[in-house]
Amino acid sequence: MSAIRHVLDVDDLSAVELAEVLSRAQVADPDRVLEGRGVALYFQKPSARTRHSTEMAVVQLAGHPVSVADHEAGIDTRESAEDVARVLGCYHAIIGARVFDHAILERMAAVSTVPVVNLLSDRAHPLQAIGDLLTVQQVCGTLPGRTVAYVGDANNVASSLALAAGSAGMAFRIAAPAGYGFDDDHLARLHAAGADVTSLDDPIAAVRGADAVYTDVWTSMGQEAEAAQRLRDFAGFTVTPELMDAAAPHAVFLHCLPARRGEEVAAAVIDGPRSRVWQQAANRMHAARALFWWLMDPIPGLVRATE
User: Fold this and answer.
1) What value does the mean pLDDT take over residues 264-282?
2) For residue range 151-194, what is the model confidence (pLDDT) as tens digits?
3) CA neighbor of 149 nearest in space, from 254, 280, 256
4) Is omega for the bond preceding 258 within 30 degrees of 0, making it cis?
5) Cβ distance 7 to 294 under 8 Å?
6) Which of 70, 216, 230, 276 is catalytic?
7) Annotated catalytic residue 284
8) Are 175 and 203 in contact (CB under 8 A)?
9) Catalytic-role residue among 98, 107, 274, 289
10) What predicted TM-score, i.e. pTM, was given to this entire model?
11) Is 274 marked active-site?
12) Quick count: other Cβ atoms within 10 Å of Cβ 170?
């Protein structure tokens, strides 16, 4: 029996495997690999895009999604993370989990008899990154040699995007205020995984000539107590029309959402003609569908001509 594959971050996929998943994301009629099977989608954290995109991804693979709120199963309150994974594996072909602490995913994967997929953790957001690459690919046609500039906090989204970009042959630049960039250990991990990361403290330098400009909220879920300080620290890091003008003429704006207009991005940008955030949000579903399909049938070369 082949080893069970878990996807807790983008670098759990090789460059070839990531390319295969991106190809499958563009197939309009995927194989019915989940017919008669369930996928458990566990949510410790609230979700809009993640729940809807993953549930519909399972449906499009002919499976049955079962979303589980934390109060229903209670990881580490009613049952250990390990026992929850063991139980869900009795009923489902895949377990997806959106958690606060990445270590919970690692504990689940260590005992699970079915693939565990990270739907978001404090360390990584692989499905978001796959959807992001799909968006850039649709806009630019190709990925190798492209540059994505990230302006803001070096958070879980930025980390997974850097890994995905590196795997696809793209450059990744990040502009963050002092104290909010990747620390040396994390940078070393990204570089060791093949990511081409350049850290800067000047947003204009970061976006100059870039193919895509990306940002995220300055205060993520669970950081509300830091909001006032973060607003002060991130002054000057808003993605404005003027900042977009420093990027390549064809550059697009990306945001993982939800957004706070007037903070990390100007309304004129996110609601303007260069914004691709709704295409990006739609691609979350295509990314999840492709990854679940690949996990159920990883044999390469299954992808038919895209429609």
Assistant:
1) 98
2) 999 999 999 999 999 999 999 999 999 999 999 999 999 999 99
3) 254
4) yes
5) no
6) 216
7) yes
8) yes
9) 98
10) 0.95
11) no
12) 24
